[in-house]
Amino acid sequence: MIRTEILKAEDLDRALARTREVLLSGGLVAFPTETVYGLGGNALDASASRKIYAAKGRPSDNPLIVHVGSVEDVKPLVREIPEKAKALMDAFWPGPLTIILPKSGLVPMETTGGLQTVALRMPSHPFANAMLRNCGCPVAAPSANRSGRPSTTRFSHVLEDLQGRVDLIIDAGDVPIGVESTIIDLTGEAPTLLRPGKITIEELASVIGPVLTDPAILSENIIAHKELVSRPKAPGMKYRHYAPRAEMWIVSGETEDVAETVNELADERTGILTVDEHQDLYRCGKILSVGSLRSPMSIAHNLFACLRDFDTMGVTRIYSEDFSEADIGTAIMNRLLKAAGGNEVQAEELLKRTSETDR
Ligand code: AMP
Ligand code: MG
User: Fold this and answer.
1) Diameter of the chain by CA atoms?
2) Ion ligand 2 — residues with CB under 5 Å?
């Protein structure tokens, strides 16, 4: 355990000065970004990166994103900046887009999980941006959660996961977006989306032309993959991610059928994830509205916090409605499906299966 100092982002001068001292002396700082909180260390210091993996409990082959304060800061970290990368930086930085490029010798392998490529992002959150312009080094930062748990989007959740494990936490309340950055890989033959986020594949394509989607992030593959994992075919395949402690199911179908099925199965220890417009349809269990159908951004904003709230309530099973995959909905369903370990089921199928196992 280490002593964790806590400073408010609005105490700006002090927070920036301490952040700089901690980072330049090899320590760790949890800080807000516009997507989720980050767990940062000096990206050029191999021992700081090792500390990040240890603080998170994350396997060290899972690469970190390197955060910068300007496009200029990218130059020493990469072998070159291709035209498409420049165009994306112009269009979307500062903002929730991570770009993968071939790394230079300056970036330690510890930071990139052993890869010859580096993931780069320039955040737009006012504190993160000021911090990166002031701290004197690029900052490697995965999400500020213990490995496997939902990313942190509220200060209290950062405290819960990282107090005693990092030197400094910057409190900026809730972060705005709530799901992690979009990741695009520009090191292969064609630009490829590796993680959906607020910036959509259509927006990326409008700037650089066609963008492929990595098969691993397609919903149907996340669902199918579960079957692979449940048979011991893919040993060591760590699959569940962003996960609450309870078993979780995404129930699809007409809203009325979903509500009817869930009402039949739910008891006091069941968590139900729904939306403002549907919450009155449910009769028992711990019912949480994640936001409004009229504002998909509100759903992204509250998603991880709701999953953590279910943990606090001690529910043993969670049923979630499914959501439109349009725009930020792609990112919402990607995180939700991963949190559920690929468990998605039609309402009538769920009822059938449950009555079979009860018999
Ligand atoms: P997190 O920081 O928790 O949002 O996770 C960072 C994620 O970025 C990793 O899990 C990888 O999926 C991705 N990533 C980071 N660097 C690279 C890289 N060089 N190549 C491919 N993916 C990367
Ligand atoms: Mg993460």
Assistant:
1) 65
2) 143
**pLDDT tens across 12-57, in order?**
999 999 999 999 999 999 999 999 999 999 999 999 999 999 999 9
Tokens standing for residue 137:
């080094």
Q: What is the CATH number of the domain that holds 295?
A: 3.40.50.11030
Q: Which domain holds residue 325?
A: 247-358
E-only strand ranges, 259-356: 270-274, 286-289, 317-321, 344-346
> What is the distance in A from the centroid of ligand 1 to the CA of 268?
38
Q: Could you give the CA distance from residue 252 to residue 321 in angstroms, rounded to a whole number? A: 6
Evaluate whether residue 233 is within a structural domain. no
d(CA 59, CA 113) in angstroms, rounded, equals 9
Q: How far is the CA of 328 from the centre of ligand 1 (A)?
A: 19
Query: What ligand has the least distance to the C-alpha of 64?
Result: 1
Ligand 1 centroid distance, CA of 204 (Å) = 18
* Of 144-153, 213-222, 261-270, minimum mean pLDDT range: 213-222
Strand partners for 289: 274
- Give tens-digit pLDDT for 119-167: 999 999 999 999 999 999 999 999 999 998 999 999 999 999 999 999 9
Ligand nearest to the CA of 304: 2
